[in-house]
Design a protein that fits this description.
two-stranded antiparallel sheet, 152 residues, globular, 9 strands, alpha/beta, Glutaredoxin, single chain, 24% strand
Length: 152
């Protein structure tokens, strides 16, 4: 059953693109969290989305918000993606597809994640789910939702 606004985001531990193990609640550390899923590392739309999140990192930091990207790709491809995008945040590997399956966002036909973004508040509760994301303007939508959530 998909995770919806008002529910807790699943605790998740995964290997990041750089080989580090990331435990989401520890990484979040009492801040808001943007978790964006993309279908395939190093592909055009995924590069644009990841690059845009990284380019807006200072704005997100000012809103006390951390970022992670997630795909079902392995660490080698995720690392290549991180380099290509100059990612300044972890790109997590859901190679066993456990998180995408748990969230109900696995494209079974392609075996990839559906382009979906979760906005999680500082207490770990999902406040917004962006499904069927269009890359253009998406980071603006996320920042607007964060500002609304924080009353800024």
């Amino acid at each position: 059953m998909p995770v919806e606004p008002g529910q807790a985001f699943p605790e998740y531990i995964a290997t990041a693109h750089d080989g580090e193990v990331v435990h989401l609640p520890e990484y979040q550390a009492g801040e808001n969290l943007v978790v964006f899923f993309y279908p395939k590392a190093t592909t055009r739309g995924c590069v644009r989305e990841t690059t845009e999140f990284g380019a807006r990192r200072e704005e997100l930091d000012a809103l006390r918000t951390k970022i992670v990207g997630v795909s079902v790709d392995d660490a080698a491809l995720q690392n290549e993606h991180a380099i290509q995008c100059a990612a300044n945040f972890p790109l997590l590997c859901d190679t066993d597809k456990s998180l995408t399956t748990q969230l109900g966002i696995l494209n079974e036909e392609r075996g990839t994640a559906l382009r979906t973004t979760y906005l999680v508040d500082s207490s770990g509760i999902v406040r917004n789910v962006f499904a069927n994301v269009t890359v253009d303007g998406h980071v603006d939508q996320v920042i607007a939702a964060l500002k609304e959530m924080q009353g800024v």
